[in-house]
Amino acid sequence: MRVSVRQENLAKGLSIVGKAVENRPTLPVLSNILLSTEDARLKLAAMDMSLGMSITCWIGAKVDQPGAITLPSRTLADLVNNLSPERVDLLLDKATQTINVRCGATVSNIKGIDASEFPLIPENTQGDVVVSGQVLKEMISQTVFAAAKEDNRPILTGVYTEFNGNMMTMAAADGYRLAVRTTEIEQRFDKKVFLVIPARALAEVARIISDEDEEVSITLPGERDLVLFHMKNTNVSSQLLEGKFPDFGAIIPRSYNTSSVVYTSDLLRACKRAEIFARDAAGSAQLIVKPPKGPGEPGEVVLVGKSSERGDNTGMIDASVEGEPLETSFNVKYLIDALNVISDERVVLQSSGSANPGVLRPENRDDFVYIVMPMATQR
User: Fold this and answer.
1) At what angle do helices 332-339 and 264-278 cross, to 10 degrees?
2) Which tens digit of pLDDT belongs to each residue from 72-116?
3) Pick the CATH number of 129-249 from 3.10.150.10, 1.10.287.110, 3.50.50.60, 3.40.50.300
């Protein structure tokens, strides 16, 4: 194997696939990244067996002699990141499974493991669904944060993904909140198809999608219980989660007693200020909605964060309020998480009372909804 690549391209490729290198692998080769030649490209691949995830990336290369090797991920990445931004020449000595790395005046030798010991990476196949890259990135960012971080209920560490008719739906819940995002797709499914994809794998897909990725094609599970995402120069594969995802449609309220429209940035800043003090109360911040006192006057949304030791903060925001007054409490960090992924100028906050969930959605859009359960109201 004799290959030449640009340092910046190799560094970028290693940073992409490095996220799929297993921390404590049972097989030594899984600490490594696979390098192999394919036509005029160098393929980089890594696999995390514990997560059932693999990432494959292709970079442009001058291939003088084909071949393959696996190299220690950390050693290779650290070295390449500290090379000068010029051509990197890689030469494999098959007898010793050592690769010679030359860049400018720098010469290094890295010992590797034979590529034949690396597990088979899922092959690229024709995608079943094509989605706009930026739409998919937004769908993931607006749901993945609401997935459970703990493994108490493994199914909740994933994002429910459904294809039905010409609609694609993604939903995530951790028992305290629910985020649902939908979009129209060109393909039509006569029969509903659904799967639960680990949130971590989807987070990597969103991280990898760039402006160059106008479209992402998704290969749905076949004989293997895998989903594959194909971007311009990168593939991500992930095992699916087994189990029954909760019926989240039943959780979404259909009617409200109070509805408020506020500027997203105003509410986000008020939540961040309240959170400084609410940390001492398990994140619980009081939310008070006041309808207008008279015709032509604005309503008001008040957020209160209190700490018995450090003090308190009260933030008041003008709002367009319809319905009854409301006094409830939410985990304010959960509100911040949702507001951070809403780019719309204004949001609608709705509730049917202090003991009922709060509903947050962008104004004039029905493709994203966020439900957050109330906390015990502070007195």
Assistant:
1) 150
2) 999 999 999 999 999 999 999 999 999 999 999 999 999 999 999
3) 3.10.150.10
332, 278 Cβ separation under 8 angstroms: yes
Give yes or no for a contact between 138 and 342, defined as CB atoms under 8 angstroms apart: no
**What would the pLDDT profile of 278-289 be if each residue is shown by its tens digit?**
999 899 999 999
Give 222's contacts (C-beta < 8 A, 6+ positions apart): none
- In whole angstroms, what is the distance from residue 251 CA to residue 372 CA? 10
- Pick the more confident residue, 212 or 4: 4
Q: Please provide the DSSP assignment of 219-278 as one string.
A: EPPSSSSEEEEE-SSEEEEEEPPPSPPP-GGGTS-S--SEEEEEEHHHHHHHHHHHHHHH
Across the range 115-139, mean pLDDT stands at 90
Question: What is the residue whose two structure tokens read 């194997």?
Answer: 1
Cα 367-370-374 angle, rounded to 5 deg? 160
Strand partners, 351: 258, 358
With 0.85 as the threshold, say if the pTM is over it: yes
Amino acid identity of 111?
K
Answer whether 89's CB lies under 8 Å from 80's CB.
Answer: no
